[in-house]
Amino acid sequence: MSNKFSILLADDHAMIREGVKNLLKQAKDFQVVGEAASGAEAIAQYELLKPNLIILDISLPDMNGMETAKKIVEQDADANILMLSMYDDEDYISRCIESGVKGYVVKSESGQELEYAVRAVLQGKTYFSHKVQEVILNKYKQNATRKKLPEEVIKLTNREIEIIQLIDQGLTSQQMADKLFISPRTVETHRANLMKKFTVKNAIELVKRARQLQIVI
User: Fold this and answer.
1) Would you say residue 162 lies in a domain?
2) To bridge 51 with a disulfide, which of 6, 105, 108, 185 should be the other Cys (CB 3.0-4.6 Å)?
3) The domain that contains 53 carries what CATH number?
4) What is the pLDDT of residues 195-217, one digit of tens each?
5) CA neighbor of 96 nearest in space, from 124, 105, 161, 119
6) DSSP string, 160-210
7) What is the pTM of this model?
């Protein structure tokens, strides 16, 4: 029995599927077990193959990725769905989250970003790529102007909010440093400052408080 994670690719462009497949092959523990070029085909392939994860395009010829995701979640509430899209629009992102996807990566981002997302979702976490986090953060700030926020949130910098979101996604300090183009020591400094601002003792308490404040989804 294979100990690799099984992955289904759904995108109507064969070139995109081939590129993603070649990227995933570089990780020894991933195996692409099927491909689909439409929403209906993705749903049928998912039901047949029961993969550990499906990477789904948002634009498919018969139904969009949100509709496809909803149908897959209807048959498997625990489905690991990662949206791979050319759009970093707030409306698309919100609708995808509502449809039940556990991750969202923009196609213009790096292969490393996609691998981070795949691993996070396979571990039962949510993962939103750097560009998506920026959209979510901007929306959060817009909402924040309409209501009085706790002092601990007001004092947060944009970088600190990014760090909280990455901690929630399960990244190590080194992975965060690589992603944000800063040093691991700088990441640790941000961690320490966040613990102080939130008056918490560890990362679990930090993420719990951040969820209460809707800093992370």
Assistant:
1) yes
2) 6
3) 3.40.50.2300
4) 988 889 999 899 888 888 777 76
5) 105
6) HHHHHHHHHTT--HHHHHHHHTS-HHHHHHHHHHHHHHHT-SSHHHHHHHH
7) 0.70
